Amino acid sequence: MRSPRLFVFLLLVACASVARAGQHFPIVAFHDVVDFRGDLDDDAITVDNLIGFFEYLRANRWHPISLDDVEAARRGKKALPEHAILITFDDGYRSAYTRVFPLLLSYRIPAVFALVGNWLDAPMDGTVRYGDREVPRRRFLSPEEICEMAQSDLVEFASHSYDLHESTLGNPQGNQFPAAYARRYTPGRGYENHAAFRGRITHDLNHSREQMTQLVGRAPRTIVWPFGRYNGVDIEIAKELGFEFALTLDPEPADVTKPMALARYHPTGDPKLADLVRNLQFDDPLPIATRLVGLDPAAIWTGDDAGTDERLGHVLERLRMLGATGVVIDAAIASSDGRISATWFPNGQLPVRSDLLSRIAWQCQTRAGAKAYVRLPSSAALRTLGDRRRVRALFRDLGIYVPASAMFIDDVPGLARTGGERPSTNTPWEIRDARRAFDPKSLPSTDALALDAFRAVAYWRPNMQLAVVIEPDGTPLPSSIADLTFQPIAPDARAVALAAKRMQTDNWLAVPASRRVGLWFTGELPPSAHALISATRRFQTLGGTAIGWASDDPLRDLPNAKIVAPTVSSSTFPEKF
Hints:
Layout: H1 4-21, E1 24-25, E2 27-30, E3 33-34, E4 45-46, H2 47-59, E5 63-64, H3 67-74, E6 84-89, H4 95-107, E7 111-115, H5 117-120, E8 127-130, E9 133-136, H6 143-150, E10 155-159, E11 167-169, E12 176-178, E13 185-186, E14 190-191, H7 194-216, E15 222-224, H8 232-241, E16 245-247, E17 254-255, H9 273-279, E18 290-295, H10 305-322, E19 326-330, E20 332-334, E21 340-343, H11 357-367, E22 371-375, H12 378-385, H13 388-401, E23 406-409, H14 428-437, H15 445-460, E24 465-469, E25 484-489, H16 493-505, E26 517-522, H17 529-541, E27 546-550, H18 561-568
Parallel strand pairs: 2-6, 3-4, 5-6, 6-7, 7-10, 15-16, 18-19, 18-27, 19-22, 22-23, 23-24, 24-25, 25-26, 26-27
Antiparallel strand pairs: 1-17, 8-9, 11-12, 13-14, 20-21
Helix pairs in contact: 2-4, 7-8, 12-13, 13-15, 16-17, 17-18
């Protein structure tokens, strides 16, 4: 007979296997549902297309699930069924009652509906502030409709916050950021401190829970972050208040082992059924082409907002012309002795030349469609501050005040070798999991500091990506903990040919992860248009898709954007020549 201890051990192993067997699944985040295409906005879907989607799920044996199913799978009690999917609707449009609810009852599909508390408190004959416009309150669910829907075992209501479904002033230049995501800036007073930010988020979420408890008879167990934007403090507060799930808009599969960061696909533009189904597969999340351009804020800073903004406008137009997918922005000013003399973001450790970095990053991402990579050498920070704790505090402030999407590390080439041999992971979420799980104790001191600095930023910017640059003579294999691995070279044909030879020697072109490896053209001066075109074409013939360069001179337009764009632009990839 097996001992009780052995039985318990085998049971725990079995439960863990169940959780692993079905841990990933898609969640779709719908919003409004309308009858006619003429009534569509960016987030809405027509009722015909919604019915077509439900018919597809039924015909292809998809299994719509509830959050109870997710919790059971998380605890290892019951695996999710094959082809599980969770359906959600944000903002509490009245179409949830008039169009969606009857369909749920007919198809027996469970769904989660997220409600904005502030809108519920508005009188039905009044208006609510939706984005930058006033919208009739009657476009959203009434308390009576909510109560009726809540009686169904197919419906669960979630908090969409009380009053965080809005933007807030986030820097001196006037950029508006999601309210749950950013420190509020008040002219003449500056940024709210940590206690004020934490108090504001706590009060809002607690108010929402109390309101919904009174309305439907039970507290919501799920927070749906407005605009999908959140940070580490938001998650901590939600947990403290009793939330068990948090839904985001990260475009990837949800994972039952991460209930406080359940990712969702957000369909826009009333997609056709084929597009909707394809996007829910998350089969090929890597970009077809990656094009990065370096940017030194000193090149556009004039000392006054008007002049700086005019130069920034030129930068944005040039990024569009170049077809850049990302911009690598220097976060600090280096001195001649390898230290940092000042920064471009607020912090408590070093002098601030100008609070400009958040403005540049936000404008590049929202106006030029270029992902903002920030570059802040941890080695130079340590040389300047002399204390690893102060270095971490510096990077923490970078995360708090700058809405970046990625970090660019080119001062610690050994970090690119972390993880050993060529990784089997390839998707952004797999790489992120590998990075989070990696133990830095085995790393050299400089490498460990760089990874620790990255994590300090990523706490405030969840899903922050990482690009690393290896040593010039290194073999360009994709790092297991970085989203992009670059080899630095001079932008001439001979250097590219030598890099390509090393790539072929390592059978680089045979691995699917090749889009995660690229060339980073470096030099004190911008590359010439001829050299950049020649090198890019050579690299593309070998299958390369990721390139970038620094230095760059946006004001003198070097390299000339009109000349190099047909070759380097991501919108013209692959170039026909």
